[in-house]
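User: ok so my PI wants both of these folded by tonight, can you help

Assistant: No problem, let's get them done. Here's the first:
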Amino acid sequence: MSKKLIIAIVVIGIAGMIILGAVSKRDSGLPVFMEKVKTGPFKDTINASGLLIPRKKVSIMSDVMGKIIELPVKEGDLVKKGQILVRIDDRDLKSEVQRQEAGVKMAEIQVKNQQVALDTAKREFKRKKHLFKQQLISRESFEQARSAMESAELTLEQYRENVVQSRAILKKSKELLSKTVIRSPMNGKITALNKELGEQVIQGTINVPGSVIMEVSDMSAIDLEVEVNEIEAARIRKNMAATVKLDALPNRKFKGEIFEIGQSAYRPQGRDVSVFKIKIALLELDPAMKPGMNGEAEITVQKKQNTLFIPIQAVRTDDNGNKFCFIMKNRKAVKKTIKTGLSNDADIEITKGLSGGETVITGPYRILKNLKNGDKVRKKKKD
């Protein structure tokens, strides 16, 4: 037998083995993933992610311009309401207060002097009025005395207004001086410290924001602020239960409930969908929680105790809009028309069509999408 003939026989034999193996594999059924129909409590949930925020947070800013000369707190410190947080250099303001106090005194002295002048002018007018009645002086002399008295009255009124104005300016200067000492508006924690001792701070104006020296947060009430799309937001109600997980505390879950639902949608930059802000109040707190931590919430929209449910990817819809799934029976795929109820990201409730105990075909999708009633199937192990 020639060498070429031997090689040809070997090649044909290998090809035949491959074909036989493929046919054998096909005859044994399509490889599919399977799972038992599950029974028990079922939750319709919405998952959303967001950031921790204190329910009450105050940005500490200065109403006066100056250098920080005292900063007795550091980030992370707990503070009490009324506790001194910052002192601003007050030398210029003290000098201004002293100057305004002197101005008030001068204005008050002017009032006293003018009162004396007015009293003199009144006596002179009274004397000349008596003389004029006796025709001992001219009308011109009498009119001059009356004009002098009226002028003295107007000048006195002006000086009194000067006193009021000077006192108002003094009051404003004292208020500014008092604002060089900044106290905590509430009990809380220093969650951000943006300035250091010796730095300059500026007060805010209409066009220029003021210096935010620090932030004080009330950490006794913390929310997870998440974004949900408009369809999911319509299903959420206040006081719905939620479970919160934080990236920084991966081994714990925290109870929460819906505290606030945004009343207007907005579209985040770079996204084509409108979202609503939802605030979830944490009912359990941990000292390690800090504003800005990432978290994920599972919001329970509805819950049932005794249900049948299957993986959501097992459910298909035909051209008539009817839902169905495949179960494995006698190593074949059997089509079952079903009706569904609640759903979440992983599973869907079956209200009609399955009785429990069946083995449902869940994938892979490339096989499931073309699977037909009666096709032979075999269980495939997941990678």
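One down. Here's the second:
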Amino acid sequence: MERVQKKIIQQDLQKKMVFLVGPRQVGKTWLAKEVAKEYKNPFYLNYDHPDDRNIIMQRAWLNDVDLLIFDELHKMSGWKNYLKGVFDTGTGQHILVTGSARLHTFRQAGDSLAGRYFAHRLLPFSPAELMRTGSNITVKQLLKRGGFPEPLVAENDIEADRWRRQYMDSLIRTDILDFERIHDLRAIQLLLELLRRRVGSPISYKSLAEDLQIAPNTVKKYIQIFEALFIVFRITPFSRNISRSLLKEPKIYFYDQGMIVGNQGAQLENLVAVSLYKHILEREDQTGKYLALNYLRTKEGKEVDFCIVEDEQIEKMIEVKTSDTKPDKNLVYFSTRHPFPALQIVGQLKKEYKVNGIEIRNVEKFLHQL
């Protein structure tokens, strides 16, 4: 299946370097090599491979190379200045850099790379991307398998489960340990298991610390590592122009839908969360606008699952239900006090309709249209 970001990456490469980042095994290398098919003499180099590393260090590629693909280059000491030198003194090669560390790694590059790159974040397949590629994979399949390419198209659920077990083991024993020295591997494993069971609920660092018998700051640090490696993403309450709301506990969601342990409601909420997050990241990467995914919460505990925010203004509020078609009372509360479009998306809904300004939408149709 072709990724929808391929064409815009090809266009951006004509102007600047392109950084393509995202979770392990989401398809970054495959996409980079698909982009390379449009070039006469592309050259792929993976910093994890010793032979490739020597070529990188010595800049030993031929002058007729027209596309350089650097994979996992951020693991190289001084990689930012290295890239600056290659870009500024090169012989016209286009440069595509891929990696599994979160984009803030690149943003810390500072002035050395300022104005020299476009960034693209590649996430798992969503219903909207599958729709645009002409796939017949359903939301029900995504709920079960998740959007990572290999388990999504696996022959059966057993093969998908085997992939996920290997994937989780690699994340913990390879990626996390490579990212930072961890002294208590058991604690980080247990934290990941706890988070898998608390999707959609506000997270208390103190409470998690008590469960794990470690310091709250350590819990926060471990979650930041999970974020940096594209294992989880965090959303916080929106505060501006919302009376009595709190910037307090975040909610945690997983990029890999298959990692969720919970009921149908938690499964559906995570799928909506990762689809919305993918939607706003693509808009940011392709338009340069500032967007965010938040949720709404007051001091009294009135809460709406999600809100999409552009330039610090709410674009729409979204509540997720598995089967309840009656407008949620908290969604009604916010919609009667603030002039933001309000939607309740429902997993099992035959007919869409509108009541008191709130749209009641079918989840599959809504996600396909993002």
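The chain is about 40% helix and 20% strand. Residues 243-247 have pLDDT under 50 and may be disordered. Good luck tonight!
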